[in-house]
Amino acid sequence: MGSSHQDAQRSQPETPTGRGRLAGLDGIRGVAALFVMLHHCWLMAFPGFPASTGPAWLGFLLYGHFAVVVFIVLSGFSLAVSPARSGWQLGGLRRFARRRAWRILPPYWAALVFSLVIAWTLAAQPGEGVPTAKSVLVYGLLVQDLFGAPSPNGAFWSIAVEAQLYLVFPLMLIMLRRAGAVVMLAAVTAVVAVIGLLAPSVHVVSMLLRLTPQFAVLFAIGVVAAGVLSAGDRVRRLPWQWFALAAVLPVLAVILVRGSEWTVGNFFWMDIALGPAVGLTLAAIATGRAKVLIRLLDLRPIRSLGSFSYTLYLIHAPIVVTVFLLVVAPRVSTGLPAFLLGTALSVPLALVVAWLFAAVFELPFQRHRSWPELRGAIRARLSRSPVERSSAPVPAEAPAESSH
Question: What is the Cα 401 distance to its own chain's centre?
Answer without folding.
Answer: 10
